[in-house]
Amino acid sequence: MHNAPHLFRKPAHSLSGRYQNASEVLREGLRLVERREQLEAAKLKALQEAAHTG
User: Fold this and answer.
1) Confidence of residue 30 (pLDDT cuts 50, 70, 90)
2) Distance (Å, whole) CA 47 – CA 21
3) 3 belongs to a structural domain
4) Among 30, 23, 28, which Cα is nearest to 9's?
5) Which residue in 21, 25, 27, 50 has the fewest CB atoms around it within 10 Å?
6) Sequence-separated (6 or more) residues with CB below 8 Å from residue 7
7) Dihedral sign, CA of 15, 19, 24, 29?
8) Domain with 36 in it
9) 47 within some domain
10) What residues have CB less than 8 Å from 22, skipping those under 6 apart?
């Protein structure tokens, strides 16, 4: 991403009022990705089990 580095120089308050700095924003983003992956894995497991049982 060519323009991405400028995001790390912005004051945290310009990103969101709930974060103190860019590091907190990145950590929250990683938590959201991990949560989404967990949900997708659970959905896949449920679909596989449903397909197996018919």
Assistant:
1) very high
2) 40
3) no
4) 23
5) 50
6) 15, 22
7) negative
8) 10-53
9) yes
10) 7, 8, 10, 12, 15
**pTM for the full model?**
0.63
Enter the tokens of residue 16. Answer: 């969101």
Within a domain: residue 4? no
**pLDDT, position 28:** 94
Of all residues in the chain, what percent are helix, strand and coil, respectively (each to 5)?
80, 0, 20
Q: Do residues 14 and 22 lie in contact, with contact meaning Cβ atoms separated by under 8 Å?
A: no
Query: Residue 30 has which token pair?
Result: 């990683």
Q: Residues with Cβ < 8 Å from 25, sequence gap 6 or more?
A: 12, 15, 16, 19
Residue 32 lies in a domain: yes
Q: Which of 36, 14, 40 is nearest to 25 (CA)?
A: 14
